[in-house]
Write a structure and sequence with these properties.
By secondary structure, the protein is mainly alpha-helical. Among the domains are: about 160 residues, Rossmann fold (3-Layer(aba) Sandwich), CATH 3.40.50; about 80 residues, no CATH class; about 100 residues, Serine Threonine Protein Phosphatase 5, Tetratricopeptide repeat, CATH 1.25.40; about 50 residues, Arc Repressor Mutant, subunit A, CATH 1.10.10. The strands form 3 sheets. Strands 2-3-4-1-5 form a 5-stranded parallel β-sheet, with helices on both faces. A 3-stranded antiparallel β-sheet has the order 8-10-9. Strands 6-7 form a two-stranded antiparallel sheet. Strand 6 and strand 7 form a beta hairpin. The radius of gyration is 33 Å and the shape is flat.
Length: about 900
């Protein structure tokens, strides 16, 4: 069996009784979990007596090759004679280096290498006493020719199998290369663990799901190395940085290594035999993170760089200029953990004597890297360089570094206004809008009055953008815009310096702030023609790209979802390279998210969010709560309820302690909706109560989403009035031209809708784009005209979108219509689809009229109240009957419906 593409996977439910630590036995246990599929495949390969001579395990440092080989030896030890060939390095013992421990046992020395090879092979077979022989070579690239001859004699004689570990196939001895080419040795590639593999591994080890934010942080910090990952997890648990929030593991802060911790121990062991110049270069790279290769060459010389690259310590990439980073990022994490301030300053001083300072022509990446290294070593930056570095950091999405750079600039420096803008933009990227407002408010009125028009306009745009997201911000936006228009609207105002071109550009910034204000408050249809005009006239200028970002988002709400996503994707690179504040750029991100999700393309939306998290390593933790919330809403929309609850729990934990307080209320509303779909009445009502006590989210979109989640939760809980609230919301949206959200509300309201409600749903849905709009329209059409075919077509589209809950609703409606009209063929098709769907869903939004026994009116009353979470005593009091009577009715209900507990009542039908 070919093992070249086997990846490690975790079997569901395989949870160890205790967390592995860092002993060899525990490392083998961890590896057996991380590489279980590969382990099983390798054992199978070795058991085939004639087809294969063994397996070559390939992979970079830290991928667990040696631990895997030893785990394999442990698994086979009961039936196989295992021989580890790991003697002295062939550079110091040129002959029989890998079998030197056996050489001493030969009775007589021989001058004939051939005789020694034969004697060693015979000794190994004698020791095996008839058992199968497995040869394990952990560093096969160091094996000398005569040690290879011993191995080849045993393999070609059919007397043994081989497991060899090597970084690349090209490093194998030539004899083994020939065996591989002949198909007699199989390759097993150990790639770094991917995010999904890490998620499965940690969930298995820890016994509960792990937040996507934590998974991403562990993935970046460990580089996918199973051993580094194990060390990090153990260390973060020990210091309580990784903790259980409800039923989900989350991180309180990014991973930081501690001296003498498990990760420190692992890295010190890894670097123990490296020379001083290599260790010093690694310390420098750990602090510098990314540096020009030319600098490293000056620091340690070409020979050392070559040795480090061959040892798998460096990664060199060329994107127009050669850059070097650590191949294993966890080495940097550990080294930064053990270097104190004195060591950092000492290294900085020593390196500065060798390397020149940074040039004026440095790229943003070079500026950022140099600034980060300087600050981590406790040195200061000039105000001029600090501003340039902050601008570079913001452009490359490193907001925390941008803030650190601006802290080098004081109010006395001429760069103070620019520093305030960059600091505010960094806070905006982090989602700390109050911090952004504070940073901008630190600029005095006198300095603003003396600022050039364009700098003033940018300050107003950034300030208004941040104010939109904080309590009381709208009132300040009005006054800020009025003051800006008064100053910039007067060509004779001396504060404008007589520069008409700069004044015109500044006025465009003010206009963009006004358009953003309009959109933020829900005036999307009103804003669309103004934004279209701005984009068409001003193209790729900052103002034009700002209009395009807002326009893409507006389109996804007013009914042009597909157009909105296409525009947002088209302008992505230009927007990211613009000088627009992060608040404006985020409208483009929102367009992609809402456009994909609400048009039904939730899997593509999900992939985009995961890609964002994986690519934005510097923002993973800071924006983790927001991104987890976005992920949770996707899963909730898609009806993947178990996953939704886990992710939303993680979002809830992160947002509860973060600066984005209004998003916390939204996460509570989403959890209520998810639990309601799961049929967990108690939890759903608990989160509805908590959500009602929170600050209302800022902005029309967040407010609508929170309201929709609450209304849909109550709809699933069959609360009276929930349906009408959805219809009222839809009518409000229709009046404002927001056809997409109107259609969504109507779809939720018309699970059992009147003809007029369904006609409205059909009309609104035809004014939208995308496959979900087609589903909505077909459901309305099929329900109104009793057309089972239309309903089955809607079910087919929902199935393509993998929207199981929506598909079940369509199928149930089709089944009822088909049975009522005597269409047995369609009825059978619908029943088969429903039977396949039901096991996958915690509950159905609609139950077929044709299914289930008839309950008496009293049984329905009891069932309805019990489904709402009332106890038997409360039901008895409400109906003025005895508790025993209630128990009797519930027994009949459970028997007729085939359920065993009250939790099943939420799935049983409409009471």
């Amino acid at each position: 069996m070919d093992l070249r593409h086997v990846q490690g996977t975790i079997p569901i439910g395989m949870i160890p009784t205790s967390l592995p630590t860092l002993g060899m036995a525990d490392r083998r246990q961890w590896t057996s979990l991380a590489r279980k599929a590969a382990l099983e495949q390798t054992i199978q390969t070795l058991s085939i007596s004639d087809e294969h001579f063994g397996v070559v395990i390939c992979g970079g440092p830290g991928m667990g090759k040696s631990v895997f080989a030893r785990t394999l030896a442990t698994e086979l030890s009961g039936t196989t004679h295992v021989v580890h060939l790991s003697g002295a390095d062939s550079r110091w013992l040129p002959h029989f280096s890998q079998v030197s421990h056996l050489l001493a046992r030969l009775p007589d020395a021989s001058d004939s290498h051939r005789d020694v090879v034969a004697a060693l092979a015979h000794m190994i077979l004698s020791d095996a006493a008839g058992s199968p022989v497995l040869l394990i070579v952990e560093d096969v690239q160091d094996m000398d020719d005569l040690s290879t001859a011993v191995v080849m004699r045993l393999l070609l004689g059919g007397s043994a199998k081989l497991v060899a570990c090597v970084q690349e196939l090209a490093h194998l001895p030539l004899d083994l290369v020939d065996l591989y080419k002949d198909g007699l040795l199989q390759e097993l590639k150990f790639a770094p663990l991917e995010s999904d593999e890490i998620s499965a591994l940690l969930s298995a080890v820890l016994g509960a799901p792990v937040s996507r934010t934590a998974i991403t942080i562990f993935s970046h910090a460990s580089g996918g190395s199973p051993l580094a990952l194990q060390a990090m997890v153990v260390e973060q648990l020990n210091c309580n940085n990784l903790y259980l929030a409800g039923a989900v593991w989350v991180l309180r802060a990014p991973v930081i290594a501690h001296p003498d911790g498990p990760l420190d121990e692992l890295v010190r062991s890894r670097l123990a035999e490296e020379p001083e110049d290599v260790r010093e270069a690694l310390e420098w790279l750990s602090l510098r993170r990314r540096a020009p290769v030319s600098d490293l060459l000056k620091l340690v010389g070409p020979a050392t760089v070559s040795v480090m690259e061959r040892s798998g310590l460096l990664s060199i990439v060329d994107d127009g200029r050669a850059w070097v980073t650590l191949y294993e990022p966890y080495i940097g994490v550990a080294i930064r953990g053990w270097m104190d301030s004195w060591q950092r300053r000492s290294l900085y001083s020593k390196v500065s004597n060798v390397l020149a300072g940074i040039s004026e022509s440095a790229t943003p990446a070079e500026l950022m890297s140099f600034a980060e290294w300087t600050l981590e070593c406790g040195e200061s930056l000039s105000s001029r360089f600090a501003l340039k570095a902050a601008q570079a950091a913001n452009s490359l999405f490193h907001p925390t570094l941008a803030i650190a750079c601006t802290e080098q600039i004081t109010q006395k420096n001429p760069e103070w206004l620019g520093a305030a803008l960059e600091r505010a933009r960094a806070y905006g990227t982090l989602g700390d809008y109050r911090g952004a407002v504070i940073a901008l408010d630190e600029v005095s009125r006198e300095r603003l009055d003396s600022a050039p028009p364009l700098a003033y306009g940018r300050h107003v745009l950034d300030l208004c953008s941040a104010l939109l997201e904080i309590d009381g911000g709208y009132a300040r936006v009005d006054s800020a815009l009025m003051a800006a228009e008064t100053r910039l609207g007067d060509p004779a105002d001396p504060r404008n310096g007589g520069d008409s071109r700069a004044r015109d550009q500044a006025l465009l910034m003010i206009r963009l702030a006004k358009l953003q204000y309009l959109v933020h408050r829900g005036g999307l249809a009103q804003a669309v023609p103004l934004l279209e005009e701005g984009f068409q006239k001003h193209g790729t200028s900052d103002f034009g790209l700002g209009c395009a970002s807002l326009l893409a988002y507006c389109w996804t709400i007013v009914g042009r979802e597909i157009d909105g996503v296409a525009l947002a994707n088209d302008i992505k690179a230009r927007v990211n390279a613009s000088d627009l504040p992060p608040y404006v750029r985020r409208w483009r991100e929102n367009a992609v998210y809402t456009g994909l999700l609400w048009s039904g393309e939730w899997t593509e939306c999900l992939d985009g969010l995961k890609t964002f998290m994986d690519s934005q390593s510097t923002l993973t933790f800071e924006r983790g709560g927001e991104t987890e919330l976005a992920l949770g809403l996707v899963y909730t929309y898609a009806g993947r309820i178990d996953r939704a609850i886990d992710v939303l729990r993680a979002a809830n934990a992160l947002l509860a302690e973060g600066v984005r307080g209004s998003s916390y209320g939204l996460s509570l509303s989403a959890l209520a909706f998810a639990y309601a779909q799961a049929g967990d009445v108690r939890e759903a009502r608990s989160f509805l109560e908590q959500a009602s006590l929170q600050t209302e989210p800022k902005g029309w979109l967040a407010q609508w989403t929170a309201g929709f989640c609450v209304q849909m939760a109550r709809r699933w809980l069959r609360d009276p009035g929930a349906k009408q609230l959805l219809i009222d919301s839809a009518n409000e949206d229709i009046t404002a031209g927001r056809m997409v959200t109107a259609s969504m509300s109507l779809f939720g309201a018309t699970v059992q809708g009147s003809d007029a409600e369904l006609a409205l749903l059909q009309s609104v849905s035809t004014q939208r784009q995308g496959r979900m709009a087609r589903v909505n329209a077909l459901v309305a059409e099929g329900s109104r005209h009793k057309d089972a075919g239309a309903l089955m077509r809607a079910a087919g589209i929902a199935a393509e979108l993998r929207l199981d809950v929506v598909e079940s609703r369509c199928v149930v409606l089709a089944l009822d219509v088909a049975l009522a009209s005597g269409d047995t063929t369609t009825a059978k098709q619908a029943q088969r689809r429903l039977d396949a769907l039901t096991p996958r869903l915690p509950g159905l939004p609609l139950s077929p009229h044709s299914q289930g026994p008839e309950l008496t009116e009293r049984e329905r009353q009891v069932a309805r109240l019990a489904a709402q979470g009332m106890s038997n005593k409360e039901v008895a009091t409400h109906l003025e009957v005895s508790i025993r009577t209630v128990e009797g009715h519930l027994y009949q209900v459970f028997t007729k419906l085939g359920i065993t507990s009250r939790s099943g009542l939420g799935d049983a039908g409409n009471w």
